[in-house]
Specification:
By secondary structure, chain A is mostly helical. In chain A, 68% of the residues lie in helices and 2% in strands. Chain A has two domains: 80 residues, no CATH class; 219 residues, MetI-like fold (Orthogonal Bundle). Chain A contains 17 helices and two strands. Chain B is globular, with a radius of gyration of 26 Å. The chains are: A mainly alpha, B mainly alpha.
Chain lengths: 324, 337
Amino acid sequence: MSTPEIAVGAPAPAGAAAAVAPLSNVKKIRKSFSTPIASVLVVILTVLWTLPTFGLAVTSLRPKLDANSNGWWNFFIHPHLTMANYNSILFSNSFGGGGGLFPYMVNSLAICIPATLIPIGIASMAAYVLAWVRFRGSDLIFFTIFALQVVPLQMSLVPLLQLYSGGAHLFGVTIFPNLHLSGSYAPIWLSHTMFSLPLAIFLLHNFISQLPESVIEAARVDGANPMRVFRSIVLPLAMPAIASFAIFQFIWVWNDLLVALTFGGGSAKVQPLTARLSQLTGSLGSKWELLTAGGFISIVIPMIVFFALQRYFVRGMLAGSVKG
Amino acid sequence: MLVSAASALPLASTVSDSLVKMVSVIEAVGGFVAIVLVIFFFAGRATGRFQRPLTIAVCLGPAVILVLIGLVIPALRTMYLSLLNSGSTKTVGFKNYWWVFHDPNNRSTLIRTFEWLIIAPAFATGFGLLVAILVDRMKHQSVPKSLIFLPTAISFVGASIIWKFVFTARDPRQSQIGILSAVAIKLGWRSPPNWLLSIPLNTFLLMVIMIWIQAGFAMVVLSAALKGIPDEIVEAARMDGATGFKLFWTVQIPMIRRTLVVVVTTIMIATLKVFDIVRTVTGGNFNTQVLSNKMYSETFVAFETGRGSALAVVLFLAVAPLVAYNVMQMRKERATR
């Protein structure tokens, strides 16, 4: 793929030349450290890291007979291409029960969109108040939410599931009604929203609290009330941080298995792609042409986001890496 | 592709089904936006001394309530449930915790989780550092960097399928479809084992998946840290005669030590919670069980709520210090900048 470019792009060996280069050309010296060995190593590592995904993509495009009778590298000797695997894994009803993957893909999207937008709305309002409309106890609230990042979501699964499926009762008194939410998207949306808030508020607070005070003061002097300051000043200025978080959250939800398995109730109506694929990996064990196509479908959307929005993606991933 | 009359019907139902789902998405998002707008409208109308408290209640209220319902109360309740029996009908004291640490199966699960915790972060960070150092001196770094970072975007489930395919083993007399077996045979290993069934090798193969995903993350963070080292320092060290490996070991590594620690702890957190990989590839069978998957199986497959909750608390106690350390470091770094 891209490997030849790297080899060509690597500067010529210059060990001796670097040693006598003038002091001012520090940057140049650094570049010239590069040795052929380093380039070769990078190429090898890059190929090693890319090969498994590449093999999956190639296999998903091979006819059933080819895919299951010899290795995918034989594709380059006998190139037969087909989209049939994608057709059957997406739409066919003939295997594994529960139909093709297409409805699950729709479920994934149906889970991701609200589970990204709702936390952003709630968290940005909260972050704004905690940063700019301070009151007694606001620091305590911020620190508590910030500290809640240490709670892994595993701690919440059972109680939340009980809450969704039976409401909450204390000494025989119903303090939270059974909303009969199970089997719909609502528990998954709600859970993702709740689990994302500590990180989202923390990240957005970091950004929003750094906005220049003069701008916000000026708006206040002009008579804008706190709500208006939020809507017309803070929200537009915070867009870069919001975009980074949105990408992180979207990918996180799209890739999530645990929350979906727990709150999806195993129901095909709401299960996302990951949950379904995890099941199929067991039952489709030997139908590699289908499993690879399914795997590729599940990774293609994050990959598009990755390549299209790489800058925001990197920022979001790095900021969100502590999330659990 | 032939779409016959018979298959047209399910297709139509698929389309209408998808439309119904998307309508529910629009309802949810639209409903949320409508509520926010209505609240904004009324809160914006408020004047005088109600204005500030109202803003605070409206903006902060939802977040506080959701965090309470979703995290604080459930965490406390899980701790409480961990002291009850499987049906949560009777207090059993610390019996569930005793079981976590004394059951022979659990012991090996805990030891295995600990192996994960040590090995996967070490290798992921090692590979990440290696690539970061190597590309730091290269001109066209963006291509290898993006390709190695790409797995970070992929789900653990997707990665599991990718690697399960790599690890597929067939009878050595047949032609292999898994690349690992094929390479092993090419290298002269007459009958390579069925990788995922051979204990204890399989656990390490599962770790490979984790390392593959996390190395890109380590590389990007460490690469940025390396670029942050002032050129003058590197140059001064070179003037003193430090080159190649010595420069790396005595100058660059100490300069990025703090970042290195954060990278390792971050990957440790992810590793402690590893669930998807084990669940998808082996289901925790063949001696590959780990803490997080055990917690899920115990709670939602065996319906042992007490034991599952105890496992969750153990996981929490293991993860919490790492996350706390990390978040504090992140804060400190922001403060110094």
